[in-house]
């Protein structure tokens, strides 16, 4: 190669530190409702408690390097990979993995929105602000290497715009947003209800990121999911099915006029794989033509055109279809590790993964350098406005 290719990991997770909310939310205002840890004697581990609801254990999503297969996980922070929780340790792990920069997504706030909103909308808003402040602190050790996205209080349009403005000058590079708001009784994304948020993002040039599973579960659904994880067959099946969950978001942005109205907003589907995407894009075009939508909306482009222009996805384990994906969508494909989740590219006794740098090199064998640079670096660097380092 003419020069080394720095790798951007387009999806990694931050396991929330125990004092994230207790040190940033008013105890006088919220008391024991504030997210905190309590020891569960039956399970022998600390669990997050939000508004009196017992949720997942503190290291449930921090399984990188762990010696047992999921759903088993470290029983404490001390036994977990410290890079899952803390900035300096994360940088050490990134260097070991051969990753220059990472896009950071939450865990508890990602999968347990129902618990925050069950207390009150105001409580959830305070929790979101505290999390965004925590991200700034976390990234401060290397802001050029951590790509942070602000979470929005999507249930309140005015509060979302206010949080966008607050975060605009704090180093954020996009937003994490709900892809299925109807599951919480709100309009679908194509509805004009969301227009103020899209319009502001369009002015800012910020991407909207849809992480699979974000704010999708009700309390009952979440409990059922956790109980079914006790069977590794169910765990594997549910994990595989989650990769298809963002198809709805892709259809929504490509087929409701969102891309047409907001051409400066990129839409990113996260932790959902890419192998199924070419077939789905082809399906959108087919249905668009054969439902008469093209005649009914002659000013709109084909869904595939919007996808190629404004929609991005990523891969981390797929091999069989990868070369064809690169041929079809070289400008829309990015690389991720999903660190430190159970399915991540995190080598260990209970993982078949190799180091991300080794995996990327194997995947890119035989791929022209220009294309490899797009996929491992260029596409994500363009979306998140990352400057290439002088040295890697």
What is the number of beta strands? Answer: 12
**Helix content bin:** 40-55%
Q: How much of the residues is beta strand, in percent?
A: 5-15%
Shape: globular
Which structural class is indicated by helix and strand composition? alpha/beta
Low-confidence stretches: none
Mean of all residue-level pLDDT scores: 93
Distance between the termini: 14 Å
Largest sheet: 6 strands, parallel
Order of helices and strands: EHEEEHEHHHEEHEHEHHHHEHHHEHEHH
Strand order of the largest sheet: 7-8-9-10-11-12
Radius of gyration equals 20 Å
How would you briefly describe this protein structure?
The chain is an alpha/beta fold. It has helices spanning 27-30, 87-97, 108-111, 113-119, 121-139, 157-167, 195-204, 219-228, 232-242, 247-255, 258-261, 277-290, 293-296, 303-310, 322-328, 356-363, 369-384; strands at 8-14, 36-40, 45-50, 53-57, 101-106, 146-148, 150-151, 175-176, 208-211, 267-270, 311-315, 333-335.
């Amino acid at each position: 190669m003419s020069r080394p290719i720095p790798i951007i990991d387009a999806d990694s997770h931050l396991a929330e530190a125990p004092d994230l909310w207790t040190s940033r939310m008013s105890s006088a205002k919220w008391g024991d409702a504030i997210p905190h840890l309590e020891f569960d004697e039956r399970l022998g581990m600390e669990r997050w408690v939000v508004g009196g609801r017992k949720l997942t254990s503190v290291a449930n999503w921090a399984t990188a390097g762990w010696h047992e297969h999921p759903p088993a996980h470290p029983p404490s922070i001390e036994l977990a990979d410290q890079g899952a929780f803390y900035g300096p340790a994360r940088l050490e792990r990134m260097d070991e993995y051969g990753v220059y920069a990472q896009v950071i997504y939450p865990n508890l706030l990602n999968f347990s929105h129902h618990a925050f909103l069950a207390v009150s909308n105001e409580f959830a808003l305070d929790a979101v602000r505290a999390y965004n402040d925590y991200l700034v602190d976390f990234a401060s050790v290397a802001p050029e290497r951590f790509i942070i996205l602000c979470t929005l209080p999507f249930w309140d349009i005015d509060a979302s715009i206010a949080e966008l403005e607050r975060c605009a000058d704090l180093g954020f590079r996009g937003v994490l947003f709900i892809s299925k708001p109807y599951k919480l009784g709100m309009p679908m994304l194509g509805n004009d209800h969301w227009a103020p948020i899209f319009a502001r993002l369009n002015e800012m040039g910020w991407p909207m990121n849809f992480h699979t599973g974000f704010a999708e579960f009700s309390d009952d659904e979440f409990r059922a999911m956790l109980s079914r994880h006790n069977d590794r067959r169910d765990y594997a099946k549910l994990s595989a099915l989650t990769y298809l969950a963002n198809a709805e978001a892709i259809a929504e942005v490509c087929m409701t006029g969102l891309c047409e109205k907001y051409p400066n907003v990129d839409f990113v589907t996260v932790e959902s794989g890419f192998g199924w995407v070419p077939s789905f894009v082809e399906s959108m075009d087919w249905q668009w033509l054969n439902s008469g939508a093209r005649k009914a909306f002659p000013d709109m482009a084909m869904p595939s055109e919007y996808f190629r222009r404004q929609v991005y996805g990523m891969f981390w384990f797929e091999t069989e279809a990868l070369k064809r994906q690169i041929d079809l969508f070289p400008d829309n494909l990015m690389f991720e590790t999903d660190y430190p989740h159970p399915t991540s590219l995190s080598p260990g006794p209970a993982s078949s993964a190799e180091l991300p740098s080794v995996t990327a090199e194997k995947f890119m064998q035989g791929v022209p350098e220009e294309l490899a640079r797009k996929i491992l670096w260029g596409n994500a660097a363009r979306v998140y406005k990352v400057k290439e380092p002088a040295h890697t």
